[in-house]
Amino acid sequence: MNFQVNGRAAFAYTATHAVDPAKRSVVFVHGAGLDHSWWGLQSRYFGYHGFNVLALDLPAHGRSEGPALTGIGEMADWVRKVLDEGKIKSAALIGHSMGSLVSLEFAARYPEAAQKIALIGTAYPMKVGEAFLDAARRNDQAAYDMETIWGHAAQVPLAGNPNPGMWMYGDTLARLARLAPGVLHADLCACNGYAGGFEAAAKVRCPALFVLGRRDVMTPPKAAADLAKAISGSQTVQIGPSGHSLMAEAPDATLDALIAFLA
Amino acid sequence: MAGPKYPGFDTLALHAGQSPDPATGARAVPIYQTTSYVFRDAAHAASLFNMERAGHVYSRISNPTVAVLEERMAALEGGVGAIATASGQAALHLAVATLLDAGSHIVASGALYGGSHNLLGYTLKRFGIETTFVDPRNLNAWKKAINQNTRLLFGETLGNPGLDVLDIPAVSKIAHDAGLPLLVDATFTTPWLMKPFELGADLLYHSATKFLGGHGIAIGGVLVDSGRFDWEKSGKFPQLTAPYAGFHNMDFEEESGTRAFLLRARREGLRDFGACMAPMTAFQILQGIETLHLRMPRHVENTRKVVVFLKGHSAVQAVMYPELDTHPDYKLAKQLLPRGCGAVFSFDLKGGREAGRRFIEALRVFSHLANVGDAKSLVIHPATTTHYRMPDEDLKKAGIGPGTVRLSIGLEDADDLIADLDRALKAAK
Fold it and tell me: What ipTM does this complex have?
């Protein structure tokens, strides 16, 4: 679906269905440097099982026009405008990594619009190492390498991909190669600079699910524990063999967790 | 602070795409000799068919053993993924059929394997796809041959049989400036000698029958996508960027971004044309890949010794090997192929066609057959075999004369190979 937000072109994948305000809606928010297609299997499932699906391309990602947004709060406000554009009063938000912070902040700022939030591969604070930030600032290939290698469990390059014939590292690198200069750095700064996590958690009124990869080296489960405690009644699902890229590394287990949560 | 490291080539050649079998613990890649896979329940079946879950449905589309080979080759080449096919020719056809329609046009190197030349020059013409063949060294010719219907540029990393080195950085720039992808046949180089994606190619394929297998026991191909070509931005490929009624109105690029080409190639190409690889073949090719990094240096080492011998022999008119400073691509080869120029090359015998016949029939260690890239040394006379159907003018363009002999140097003792050649050259006089 192509639309306009703040006068700029934006895109959301809708699983080839028209948005119907009468249906329940699920909004997918991707992580740093990525785009809507990162949610391929999961977004398609919900689109074909009675939900409106909006798998977003945040500004400067995928098919959405730039410039990149520079803060998590700004991204949460942008998501709200997308819902307004689609005449959707409320939705479940599913966010991965940076997108999980956006979903959390959205639920705090717009409690009436957040039915549920699922935070996948999350941590708070989501600090980013100086070497990673610096490489991204210079648009150096090393930043894309760090995102790729740390973004998957250590066994990924030497193990089979659940998606037949695909090479996870190659896929991530190819996506990052399409990013405009500065976008990954803007995203990483947004994660690193986000300081409102516990404040937002205290304001969450909707059910919250944490989906965490036990082999995640970027946002290890222990780094999400305090945030999970801060959201009253939140549930946590840990997926054994997965690293940070849960939707690709453990697509079925991730989908099953989401199906159970959104049922 | 040192950044994280990728696994090296040798490790990927042995491991990529497979962890010990979760059902049995088998360390070797199991051969999943099955046509189909039991669904957990009706909902699971529907989800697999509608691409909501990952997995296998039917072995024409995907198979766990074949998937290991595909992922391993994608890892070795640095691509997003791969599709294994029934042969190298099936891989070329799959690439063309995924991207081109009747009325489309290809610009291709004139120095191609005879089978590829036949497909492009004759067979695809019957289906409305035209090809203009150009001198691969003439960059202006590549540029000038592109027209409004062109959808693909195509060449071999090392041309067959003259070993023209394709200037991938320059040709890919010409392609990209025109909004087109560059496909290369990387059979002669393998990922050990060259990484075409790092040089600018967008798609590549191998005849896995050759060096990847190395044993001469299995026919197969592998098509690999870099995932770097932006089909949406090009605007020339509605096959990937517009809803397709043949697959649930899927817009492949919108659905999967970097994986669009492979998604359509698998879901349409394997489904409808059906030129898939058998699981046993995938297993056999994988056995070869596990030692690719050990075999290729020896292939190159033996080839260099044989080239030196032939170059100094009085019965030999010319040797075409890019590591010789007499080869027109000597400088380019140094730049693009620092590890070596492979193990397949040609030389011209003095005495033409009849000398060629006597030479081939006198060989004892070399096998006279239509293949290359085997662990055993091979020989063929292109003008009467692989390139038999090419007109003389096209043969000349491809650098083939009546006395041209193509050798594929294997892993035997180099001294034995040289002795065999020496005996046959004496017989040819």
Answer: 0.96
